[in-house]
Design goal:
Elements (H helix, E strand, L loop, with lengths): L1 H20 L4 H21 L21 H39 L3 E7 L9 E10 L4 E2 L4 E5 L14 E8 L1 H4 L4 E11 L15 E12 L1
Antiparallel strand pairs: 1-5, 2-3, 2-4, 2-6, 6-7
Helix pairs in contact: 1-2, 2-3
GO biological process, one term: cell migration
Organism: Orthonyx spaldingii (Chowchilla)
Pfam families: DOCK_N
């Protein structure tokens, strides 16, 4: 609603400048004034404000000098014009949605670009960070995992890839775009001892993978 009203206000500001310029011929000036009043009446309608009754030239009718029947008829005409404009806008929006869906259906695949900046999580040991796409309604992952090995120092184990941890989830087709929800899931797997507090050297283990944490964000 805000974007629609903002766009209409920008149009009104531009048209007002053209009217005040005094350079328009009389016929163009008359048509422009009609466009202005039609835009104002349309904006009032979608904002649930009062409908202003006007004459053929766009001037507001004076109820003190206009009969009740004339006011009623002018109100009927104005209401009909606004309703026609609303139906026209609705039809145009539906056509845009249909064209967008047809475009998506005709496009073979899409891709999602991911840039990993940092992992802010106190783990205490080395870890594996796995990122993937998940369909919560079907309860299944719809992509492979993007794996980043993270050291206990809080940096990538492959230090050459620092600030260059990027991945692209490819082959997302129209079926994936039609899913009601798609979640981006990040899993953290700790790699090390069985227990972080295992100080007994006889029981000390290493290289074991244990689930540590998970996070996700949901979108359409």
């Amino acid at each position: 609603m805000f974007r629609s009203v903002r766009h209409m206000i920008y149009d009104l500001i531009e048209w007002r400048s053209q009217i005040l310029s005094g350079t328009l011929p009389q016929d163009e000036l008359k048509e422009l004034k009609k466009k202005v009043t039609a835009k104002i009446d349309y904006g009032n309608r979608i904002l649930d404000l009062d409908l202003v009754v006007r004459d053929e030239d766009g001037n507001i009718l004076d109820p003190e000098q206009t009969s009740t029947i004339s006011l009623f008829r002018a109100h009927e005409i104005a209401s009909k014009q606004v309703e026609e404009r609303l139906q026209e806008e609705k039809s145009q929006k539906q056509n845009i949605d249909i064209n967008r869906q047809a475009k998506f259906a005709a496009t073979p695949s899409f891709a999602l670009f991911v840039n990993l900046k940092n992992v802010v999580c106190k783990i205490g040991e080395d870890a594996e960070v796995l990122m993937s796409l998940y369909d919560p309604l079907e309860s299944k992952f719809i992509s492979e995992n993007y794996l980043v090995r993270w050291s206990s120092c809080g940096l990538p184990k492959d230090i050459d890839r620092l600030h260059n941890l990027r991945a692209v989830f490819t082959d997302l087709g129209s079926k994936d775009l039609k899913r009601e929800k798609i979640s981006f899931v990040c899993q953290i797997v700790r790699v090390g001892r069985m227990e972080l507090r295992d100080n007994n050297t006889r029981k000390l283990t290493s290289g074991l993978r244990r689930p540590f944490g998970v996070a996700g964000t949901s979108g359409r």
